[in-house]
Amino acid sequence: MTRLVTTVEEMQALRESARVEGKTVGFVPTMGALHEGHLSLVRRARADNDTVVVSVYVNPFQFGPQEDLQRYPRDLPADHKLAGSAGADFVFAPTDAEMYPAGFQTYVEQFTLPKRLCGRFRPGHFRGVLTVVLKLFHIVRPTRSYFGQKDYQQSVVIRRMAGDLHCGTEVVTLPIVREEDGLAMSSRNRYLGVRDRKDALCLSEALVIGEAAIRNGERKASAIVDAMRERIGRVKRARIDYVACVDPETLAAVKTVEGTVVLALALHLGKTRLIDNRLVAP
Ligand code: PAF
What we know:
alpha/beta; Rossmann fold; Pantoate--beta-alanine Ligase, Chain: A,domain 2; 2 domains; 6-stranded parallel β-sheet; 3-stranded antiparallel β-sheet; globular; binds pantoate
C-alpha cells in the first residue's frame, strides 16, 4: 500500500525513520497528471533505493500570470494509484498552505542558467522551480532524486543548485519517454485536440532533422537551426519561442558543433506550450 502523506511534519518524520533504519531514499518530484515518463522515473527510483517518495504538487510560484496554473490537470487519486503501481512507498501531496506558510518570502535565485532558453520566455519560472525543489529536498532529504530529460534546462539548473547549496542528493536525469509516433510525453499533452496532436509532431520531427544534419556532417549551428525551423514552419499556426543548438552544461548557444550539443525547442500550438530536446554527439 502506498501511503498518502499531506503534511510536512509527517513526511519529515517518515524520512527520519528511514534514516534511523539506514535506508536510502529515492525521490521523484512531480506536479501530478502522471504519465509513462514519470513512471519510468519511479521505477528507476524503486530499483536504486530502499524507499521511494513521489511528490505531487502543482507549484503556483513557477507559473506566470498568463500561464496554465488554473487548468493544469489535477487528479490525486489517479496519481496515487499510478505511483503505487510503479513502486512508490509514499506519495507526498501537500496543500499550498502547507508548502508556503503565511508570510513566506524566501526564494532561490540562480544567475545565468535560468536566463537562457525557456527562461527568456518564462520570467520567474526557474526561481519558482528551484525554490520548491529546494524545499522538497529539505523535507524529503533524498539520497537520489530523479528528473526527466524532457525538461532539460530544469535538470541542469537543479543539478547546479544541488551542488551549489550542498543539497546532499544525487541528481539523476533519465531519457525522454516518447509516444510511438515520437511525441515526447508530457502532462500538457492532455490539452491537445486532434489537430494539435497531429501538428505537435513537428517538434520531434524537427529534432530528428537537426540530428540528421549533424550526422551528415553539418557543423554550423545556424544551418542546423534553420533546417529545424523549416520543419516547424510547415505548421503555420505554430508560434515559436525558440529553436536552439546549445552547450549541454552552460546552455549557451554554440556557433559550431564541436562536441555534444543539445537541440532544444519550445513553441505554442493554440493555448498549449510544448518543449522538446535531443542530445546529439557528433
Ligand atoms: O517538472 C516538474 O514537474 C516540476 O517543475 C517540479 C520539478 C516537480 C517542480 O515543481
